[in-house]
Amino acid sequence: MDSITLLFLPQLSSGARIREVAPDRSEIEVPRKLDQIAPDVNAYTFTFDGSLLGEIRSMYERLAAETLNDPENAHLLAGGRKVELELGSGEERLYATSFGEAPLLWLSNDDDHTYRVFERFFRSLGIEDEVRELVDHDERIVVYCGFFVVGNVSEQAKWHVDYQDRANGYTLLTPLYDLDEKHGHLVYEGANGKLYRYRYDLNEAILFGDGFPHTTEPYPKTEALRVLVSLTLGTDRLEHWEVLQTIASQSRYLRMPCGHQRGACVCLDSSP
Ligand SMILES: [Fe+2]
Fold it and tell me: Mind listing the pLDDT tens digit for each residue in 10-34?
C-alpha cells in the first residue's frame, strides 16, 4: 500500500427521485436509494435497515461461524492451498472454497434453501427498480448466487474486475459484522486512473458492475474474521450469458438469467 496514493471522495448524493404510480393512479415520488460513488464510475452505494440482514446472519452463525472460529481450523483461512469444504447438512448447505491458494474463503449457497435466504435479502432492499435501470432486461433482476466472503489477512492487492464489459451483471457487497479497525476495505480505480478507498460500513452496501477495477485493501493478520455478504445479480436475458458466465466458476449452485438452476436448465439448449 505504500506505493499507491489513496484519495477519499465524498459520496455524491444525487437527490434525484423516481416516480411510481400509486394504486389510485396518481404519481408519487420515491427517493432514490442508489448513490453513484463518483461520476463515470460504475458503482453505487445505498443504506438499508440493518434488521434485513438478520436471516443471513443467523444462517452464517448456524452453518459456518463455529467451524471458522475454531482455532483447530485456522489452516482453512491461512492460504497456501486450495480449500474445498461443505458446511451444513441436509437441505441447508454452504460450499466453502478458496480461489487457488489465496487466504480468502468464499462460502456460496449450495442448495435452494440457502440460495433463497440471499435472494430474500436482495428483494427486501427495495432497489430492484433502480438496478433495472442499470441493466438490459426483460422483466426482473435475477440473483445468481449469494456468498459469505471470509478472511483474516490479505497480504497482497489482487486487482481485477468482476465482469467482462457489457455483462449486465452486478456485485453487491456489505459487511455482516463491523470490521476490525485493522481490516482492509475496498480500493478501486476511478475514471481518472487514480485510486480511491471505499470504507465498508454496517448497514451500507456497495453495488458495482463491469469496468470497475478493484481489490481488497491489503491488511495484516487479525484475530477477528472479516465477513462480507456478497451477491451476484443482474439481467434476466439469457442472451447475455455468454459474457456473464465468468461468474459460473465461483460456486456449485447458481441461478441462470432465466431463473433456473444451472445444470437443471435447458433454456440455452432450446434457444435459437
Ligand atoms: Fe471483486
Answer: 444 444 555 667 777 777 777 899 9
**How does pLDDT run across 56-67, given as a tens digit for each residue?**
999 999 999 999
Is 19 part of a structural domain of the chain? Answer: no
121 neighbors 145 (Cβ within 8 angstroms): no
Q: What cell numbers appear for 100 in the block?
A: 487457488
Residues 56 and 92 sit within 8 Å (Cβ to Cβ): no
Is 14 within the bounds of a domain?
no
Asked if residue 20 belongs to a domain, the reply is: no
Q: With 0.85 as the threshold, say if the pTM is over it.
A: yes
What is the Å distance from ligand 1's center to 271 Cα? 30
Find the domain containing 184 and state its range: 38-270
Question: Cβ(42)–Cβ(199) under 8 Å?
Answer: no
| Residues 106, 147 contacting (CB under 8 angstroms) | yes
Q: Per the structure block, which three cell numbers stand in for 112? A: 435452494
Q: Quick one: pLDDT at residue 4? A: 52
Residue 198 pLDDT > 90, yes or no? yes
* 25, part of any domain: no
Distance 169 CA to ligand 1 centre (A): 12
How far, in Å, from the CA of 177 to the mean position of ligand 1?
19
Assign 3-class secondary structure to 202-232.
Answer: CCEEEEECCCCCEEECCECCCCCCEEEEEEE
In this predicted model, what pLDDT tens digit does every residue of 113-146 receive, in sequence order?
999 999 999 999 999 999 999 999 999 999 999 9
Task: Measure 21 CA to ligand 1 centroid, in angstroms.
Answer: 36
Q: CATH number for the domain including 99?
A: 2.60.120.620
